[in-house]
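Hey team,

Sharing the proton-translocating NAD(P)(+) transhydrogenase run so nobody has to redo it. Sequence (376 residues) first:
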Amino acid sequence: MKFAVLKETAASERRVAATPETVRKLIGLGASIAVEAGAGETASIHDSEYEAAGATLGDRSTILKGAEVVLAVQGPEPASLTGVAPGALVVASLNPFAERARVDAYAAAGVDALAMEFMPRITRAQSMDILSSQSNLAGYKAVLDAAAEYGRAFPMMMTAAGTIPAARVFVMGVGVAGLQAIATARRLGAIVSATDVRPAVKEQIESLGAKAIFVEDEETQAAETAGGYAKEMSDAYKAKQAEMVSSHIAKQDIVVTTALIPGRPAPRLITDAQVASMKPGSVIVDLAVEQGGNVEGAVPGEVVERHGVRIVGHRNVPSRLAADASAFFARNLYNFLAAFWDAEARGLVLPDDDEIVRGVRLTKNGKVVNERLTAG
Ligand code: NAD
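Structure output:
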């Protein structure tokens, strides 16, 4: 089976969907791999390393000729996939809700698109889950970005020149990114507190040595979906949460927000007035800035200053750690491909009744087939 690995074209994208390690493993399964020249450059991987792993290198039109599987980090424009085999698979992060028109275009082009961020949250699929692997790095990097913008130290320091207090870090939204942000801030010596809408997270926050700050009511008991994600909360809950945040946030030096609700804009957690209540020199990192933002005034791709507080809105934070993020992403893709590899057929077999296939498949035989897109 012929695979093509694309060089990413988006401005803020430095990752690559295959590494020499996964190229070697895919070839071990029986695949042949063509990598677009320069695909790994921004993730510190030279073309020669792909060649040494057994891949061929070429320009985009050459590598796509007859390709049956196209691997990418972000979904390529359907029109750019000229020359691929009929019914070719595109395996990538496809942002299906926001890029719905592109999903339709994949169907129209007869390409079978698999959205890796739709991977079901089941034990069998854990090693294939790009959202987890990338969020983990984003949570870590968010704290380092905060530390870089902050004009003070994180740990308490007792020196001959006097003592400086530890920084106070508040993490809002404690999924994969939030947990890693808590762990990273703790390692740097900060005093950490955190909040979420899902009560199950409380114990995890405390096990990392941070303080859990929660609005407790009947609604939070049902705040988690069967898939492990948060639901959108009621206005009454939001009002209680805002009151809790207002009294807590003014005492914080650093806030990291990560709150997301699948298929919906990110919930607004911090208002401009709450930003104004913080001490000058404080820093807020909004990891949800590209999904609409948790913080009023956050600007995608920029660090802005409001009321003396820096609001950090970097785009595509995992890509800021491109080498590690690529290594994780590529392994997630490999684990998925290997699980559905048929040794006899020397190719992929994707049964329609498999929970993972049903979860990630967006298009088939010219139609959009994913129930998360077709429902309602
Ligand atoms: P996410 O990126 O969708 O959201 C980040 C966090 O924001 C979540 O914890 C969510 O509850 C929280 N949030 C949403 N609205 C909020 C609000 N209004 N106020 C405060 N917080 C809010 O979440 P995620 O990182 O993808 O993780 C969700 C859960 O799924 C976690 O418990 C994680 O451990 C679990 N998970 C399971 C698997 C698996 O079993 N295979 C894989 C990955 C993650």
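Residues 124 and 292 are 31 Å apart (CA to CA).

Ping me if you want the raw files.
A.
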